[in-house]
Every structure is written in C-alpha cells, then in structure tokens.
Amino acid sequence: MGASKVDVSKGVALLTIYDMCKALSKSMMFGEIRLERKIGGKSGIYVAPEN
Questions:
Q1: Domain segments of the chain: what residues?
Q2: Catalytic residue positions?
Q3: Of 6, 9, 10, 36, most Cβ neighbours within 10 A?
Q4: How far, in Å, are 1, 41, 42 from residue 46 at the CA level?
Q5: CB distance 26 to 46 below 8 Å
Q6: Phi/psi class of residue 38: alpha, beta or left (left: φ > 0; alpha: ψ in -120 to 50)?
Q7: What's the confidence (pLDDT) of residue 51?
Q8: Any idea what DSSP says for residue 47?
C-alpha cells in the first residue's frame, strides 16, 4: 500500500525543515527520523554516527 497524501506532506515538511537547519547539525532527529547518510553537495559525504 502506498503512502497517503498526509504522509507525503509530512515528509516534505520534514525535508524542508532539515534543509533550513542542516548548517547547524546534520545529526538532528525528528522523533525517530534522521539522516543516515548522504553523498554529494557542498559538504560532500555524511554518515551518521551509530547510536
């Protein structure tokens, strides 16, 4: 079953907030949601520390 429009809207909102705050900390979490890894962009490669 696919994601509902509400789920997609929440995801977009979280990505927008993350994008605005990433300069402060890439390891921020929204509940249990966090960035695990990324490649590319101005800051290069990021891999989240293990908890």
A1: 5-47
A2: 19
A3: 10
A4: 31, 10, 11
A5: yes
A6: beta
A7: 66
A8: E
Per-residue pLDDT at 1: 63
Q: Average pLDDT of the chain? A: 85
Query: What does the alpha-carbon distance between residue 38 and residue 35 come to, in Å, rounded to a whole number?
Result: 8
What span, in angstroms and rounded, lies between the C-alpha atoms of 16 and 42?
A: 18
Return the structure tokens found at 35: 């960035």
Residue-wise pLDDT for 24-46, tens only, equals 888 888 888 888 888 988 888 98
Say which residue the tokens 């891999």 belong to.
47
Measured CA distances, 28 to 3, 6, 17, 19, 25 (Å): 24, 23, 11, 11, 6
